[in-house]
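Dear colleague,

As promised, here are the two records you asked about, laid out in our usual form so they can be pasted straight into your sheet.

NAME FIELD: protein one
SEQUENCE, THEN STRUCTURE:
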Amino acid sequence: MNVVKCPRRVGAKYVSIASSKYAKPQQPIPLIFRAYPSPMHGISVCVGPLYGPEKKWLEIAEFIEHYKLIGVRHFYFTIFNMNEYTRKIMDEYTRTGEVELTVIQSEYANVDWQFHLLQINECHQRAKYHSKWVINADIDERLVMLNGTLQDLIRRQEQSISEINFAVQRVMKTDLLPEVYENDEQILREMIFTKYNISADVVWKAAKCMYRPEKTASMYYHWSYIKYPGYNAAWIGRNQGYFLHYRTTSATGIGSGWLDHANYKNFQERPNPITFANELRENVLRKIKYVYDRRILYCEELPDAVYQEYIVYGHETFHCKFKSEVENEQRKKLELENSTMISRK
């Protein structure tokens, strides 16, 4: 699997690739116009591919709402494999126009971090002329600004700067993400930025960047390794901003030996540097409840015309219940629980 850059051709509507001049080309896909005179988005995020057994629904909401609060308005997501429950939150952000989703079909049964470079370079090409600046971040990484806004930082850069690099602070993530939504208290308790605060020093090891797509020739995992002539990188002081990396401590995770690495030391409980914590909690909770907080349909809510059909066809068609039915079910459940407790005693 490769990312192929094809030269433009006037009048072309579809594109395909083949392994040789005489090989049968793959199924063609329609071209999408991206050559805008000026980028549609000021700051976007190229989000690393999602993989592993964890359900990422809460992490996705927290990630997107965090970056929205520092000025990001567009997100490029790439999916190789995703469970149906997590896909609900992804579909919602796609519906609102905040997420552009690329789904990559593969012949391989398992797709892991080795496909990360495919996502990075595909997103780089996708963002050209579409976003002015792109933050290169994984789903467990949050950029925090300490001295001024991200927009202020960008405005201070010279035209020759095509890449801005930030240091990283590793934060120990010791538990798995929740499987499903239960209640508001669970969400407030399980948000990553409130649950974990044992971190190492801020270091330049594995630094991450934001970059100008049209001024960058090729990307590596964390930064560009080929820039077009005349462009350079800037390195931002740790007192201005850095990435929080909520890295799993699982012994089976990618790079699981990082806790013993010499660069990550002096672990201690530290104050949360996120200055908009209350607003972030509210935004994440609101989005999660909108997508996952489901209740039954009461028959009393049906419009009159539909209710007449209900009378004819019954519960099986509309899957509704009368409020009195629900109250009776709840009362019987409570009585059963009480009787069970008494018998145990």
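NAME FIELD: protein two
SEQUENCE, THEN STRUCTURE:
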Amino acid sequence: MWPNGSSLGPCFRPTNITLEERRLIASPWFSAVFCLVGLASNLLALSVLMGARQGSSHTRSSFLTFLCGLVLTDFMGLLVTGAIVVSQHVALFDWQAVDPGCHLCHFMGVIMVFFGLCPLLLGTTMASERYLGITRPFSRPTTASQRRAWTTVGLVWAAALVLGLLPLLGMGRYTVQYPGSWCFLTLGTEPGDVAFGLLFALLGSLSVGLAFLLNTISVATLCHVYHGQEAAQQRPRDCEVEMMAQLTGIMVVASICWMPLLVFIAQTVLRSPPVMSPTGQLSRATEQQLLIYLRVATWNQILDPWVYILFRRAVIRRLYPRLSAQPRSLSLQPQLTRRPTMQ
């Protein structure tokens, strides 16, 4: 326990920051515009998704359901976390005075982990679905229902929520972070802090790495079919190319936005000598790095909907007109060769 006063909760670490410094760092205008742009982008993507799901095939409908779950997650993440952060930036309230029992801090810590892991886990889930659909077409049902896809999305949400609740059960701690406007996991030396930090970083990195591997195999398979000897009979449909383009874009965005933060967390909790002092204080450079990497990761919630909006068939056809002119079959499943009959 840190020496922060017996009447205060365990989420407060010693910090040396003045009110004037907080005003310079915590801009309410930037935070408000950032959240509004993100919310509008996700709403636009949701409206486009609703139109695209009408009349779509079973395979594409399942993929669009996963995309809808991803966009909904990003939207709710921006809405909930943005409401707390913008309010803090506008009022510049003293977190110790407003939340001495750390209830708000614990809530924000849970949702930060939840809305951080969900896009990564959903990206891996979509990569797995496309991998099976392209490389193992007979190993999955051809009539996968939307209910099944929504059940999978719900399981991903449940898994991320369980992980986010671990610090409340004793594994790790959520603490107020520099400049005093948000809460996140603690980069401390306690065994629980180290274990939870590594679990968060490794699970996120594994999700990105697995999605990269599966998407690489899927894209290679599409290219093989497209340029193979039987390409004229087994051309990938436009929707299959579109889904892989969107999925690859989501993976690239997630890697760029999240990997710096995940690597930083793992390096910090494993560093020797420890970065955090016995009193719970981090160096200003470490706190500033954490804030920068967190802000970069937040861009993932804004860029995800634009990946779907920009990587649609209409846009792909404009960039690559030959795609719509190529003959296409109804499926990537292997064609059965007919043996000549004896006359």
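A couple of things worth noting about protein two: The first strand starts at residue 174 and ends at 177. Residues 229-236, 327-343 have pLDDT under 50 and may be disordered.

Best,
R.
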